[in-house]
Amino acid sequence: MTADVNKKQSGIEIGIYTLADLGPDPLTGRTISAHQRIKEMIEAAKLADEAGLDVFGLGEHHRLDYAVSSPPVVLAAIAQATKRIRLTSATTVLSTVDPVRLFEDFATLDLVSDGRAEIIAGRGAFVESFPLFGYDTHDYDALFSENIELLLKLNEHEKLSWNGRFRSSLNAAEISPRPVQNKLPIWVGVGGTPDSAIRAGRLGVGMAMAILGGDPKRFVPLVDAYRKAAAHAGHAPEELCIGVTGHCYLASTTQQAKDEFFPYYSNYWAYVNRQRGMGFRMSRDDFEQMAAADTALFVGSPQQIIEKILRQHELFGHRRFLAQMDIGGLPFQKVMEGIELLDSA
């Protein structure tokens, strides 16, 4: 039985996501504008939709080296260029956004897209949105906890009374508009902490795990903690959704994929590490170890990518895999070729 048949039988949704980083092409030194980056993302989503992929995700950042600070605005534009692909944030920085405004924006996106909107909520890898919107980083976790609880209530109720610590109270407030879907699908993004997995399980929301490298087996305890917390809270197993996100590059052969992707992947981590105040730069030997057959970095032929997806499915039983393919200043033509190869896998 082929890997493609196994993938279809497992019921895994396949999609792509982007964080809209504005990195220089390491081979030409050229950095495209935010205007061009957004245009290219819309075209990538259109091709993914036409290719039959299931999901398109868009990240949120509030700094000049990323092109998107408002995912629902760009996703609304993508909704008009696509027909069936589901549209999600990846992720919404929930600690520094008003949950009421967030729900209204994505409910509106749901209306515009005929019922295709989703939210992946997380705490974010960067903290620039805290001073930008007047929040204290000392409240990092408390803000997220309060906001996710409120967001879920907004998803349940057309009218809501509510009191919290960080925003004004709601008194029989009308929450409008309501989405096309009965409720917006809401996921929590989990980077590797058991507390985040337990919270997602307790709340009964989807868990989207960012697995960017290393041995994926190290995430099995998070999946177990998620399912155990969900069961303890009374959520049925069939209600739970697990997703995996990861970096991905495809070419006709695995060697070709490694040779083509290495300068861009090394470049990506060079500027991401600079953004975080670190100086590590990846060598080719580092890259070869990261891209080995038993790791979570998806670099190879379509067959090898599917084998890695299925290997992770044996570990996690997840429903969805999202590939981040457009990093490190990778030329748009290579992104388009990767989408076509992912569809053929």
From TrEMBL:
The keyword Cell cycle belongs to this UniProt entry's keyword annotation: no
Domain Luciferase-like: 13-317
Gene3D superfamilies named in the record: Luciferase-like domain
Name of one Pfam family that matches: Bac_luciferase
Keywords tagged on the record: Monooxygenase, Oxidoreductase
Keyword Oxidoreductase: yes
Superkingdom, natural source: Bacteria
InterPro entries, per database record: Bact_Lucif_Oxidored (IPR050766), Luciferase-like_dom (IPR011251), Luciferase-like_sf (IPR036661)
Stated name of the protein: LLM class flavin-dependent oxidoreductase
Species of provenance: Brevibacillus invocatus
Biological classification of the source: Bacteria, Bacillati, Bacillota, Bacilli, Bacillales
